[in-house]
Amino acid sequence: MQNKTLISQPFDMIVFGGRGDLARRKLIPALYHLDRERRLPDDGRIIAVSRGTMAPEEFLQLMHDECVIHSPGDSVHGPFDEESWHRFAARLTYLSVDATDPASYGALAAALKGRKNVVRAYYLATAPDLFGPIAANLTALNLVTPESRLVLEKPLGKDLPSARTINAAVAEAFAEPQTYRIDHYLGKETVQNLMVLRFANALFEPLWNRTYIDHVQISVAETVGVGGRWRYYNESGALRDMVQNHLLQLVCLTAMEPPATLDADMIRDEKLKVLRALHPIGPDDVAQCTVRGQYRAGSVDGAVVPGYLEEADSAPGSDTETFVAIKIGVDNWRWAGVPFYVRTGKRLPARSSEIVVQFKTPPHSPYPASAGTIHPNKLVMRLQPDEGIRLIMLNKGRGPGELRLRQTALDLSFNETFGGRSPDAYERLLLDVIRGRPALFMRLDELEAAWQWIDGIRDGWHEAGLSPKPYTAGSWGPNAAIALIERDGRTWHEDEF
Hints:
Helices cover 34% and strands 21% of the residues. It has helices spanning 21-36, 56-69, 82-89, 106-112, 131-140, 160-171, 189-199, 230-255, 264-277, 286-289, 414-418, 425-435, 444-464, 479-486; strands at 11-16, 44-50, 92-96, 119-124, 148-152, 179-181, 213-221, 290-296, 298-300, 303-305, 323-328, 340-345, 352-359, 378-384, 388-396, 405-413, 469-472. Helix 1 (21-36) packs across helix 2 (56-69) and helix 8 crosses helix 9 (264-277).
């Protein structure tokens, strides 16, 4: 029996970089799961293209092995299913294409020929300097149809001018409504639930403002280092790799005004307003509002790990940051005076992503000092590893003795409540590309507003001569990151990491 959420329109998904890391770890396993759950139509094809030849059976075996690794089982679907794989493999094709050479697109053009009224989703899992040439070649060969969509992976530039250059080149071939700039964080279940939590529950929305909220924290912590991606990461750093996209999108969804409807542009209009309301950070205040860090050798999960400058392919003297913390102000009516503290880094003690909304404490305590301190309520939204929502509040300790205030939590675990496997973010986003639903993808003006704000910080670092502060791998970053929040009389929420 087929799933009710089945896509009815036929599609061709063409993945450039089809043998690359992203395709192997995320894209193909996500499409396998969608097919296994019968969410794809029978007439849907996946064409992986990449430079270099590979026999069809070799490619299928490679993808089979990757899906086994990256498709953990669960109580509903069990382990990797060979029967489902064989059905899915019938959709898969590999073609050798040099993205920069129009003459090598012949096999792709032949594969797509005669497919009318079919959604064409071109997914560019390649370096961004190939986005323009690929778009130009597709246009030159008449492979862009009204039903075509182009999916762009980050990084979309390294600053505002380079982002504009890339997007201008893409716009020569694909109209803005056809362009899907992907941020996989927006496909996470908890991020999706954030808007429902805010806008479908009268309990929270009246309190979601400067009158009741003291501050907001957004933390994305990674235990891994840069691994074999040192040269790429060294050109990016934590600010451009994580804050410009993932963390700013989480700030937008937390701070945005309620959209009138769930129309894609209405949602993105409200996010854009937040980005344009971010208080600029420049040379005069960058030292007070930001912290840069770079990990040194240490221990993570009991294993000794090298420092950033000791990783494979590293170069001495790099001042690229692997950790960043920022105090963000949102200059609008709802959030005036409410700081948003964001932090992200590599080689931290645990892998976790959370949004913490801390409410103000009551203005007066009628309880004796012996009852204990009145701690603020917190709403904690866990994005990973265990998606869920916790409301931390005060209750009376049990028993007839002396009154004691005790912090307790109402805990909603998505796994325990809804059961089954939590879909990967790419599953949702790939479905939305095929269906033509752009709400979870960045619009051009969003991207440019984000880069403009980020560029101000980078320019401020340069003018102020701020280099990354060292921190030991396995710690929570430089001591200055603790001082960033504690000089405001607040502290990072860490007990759930």
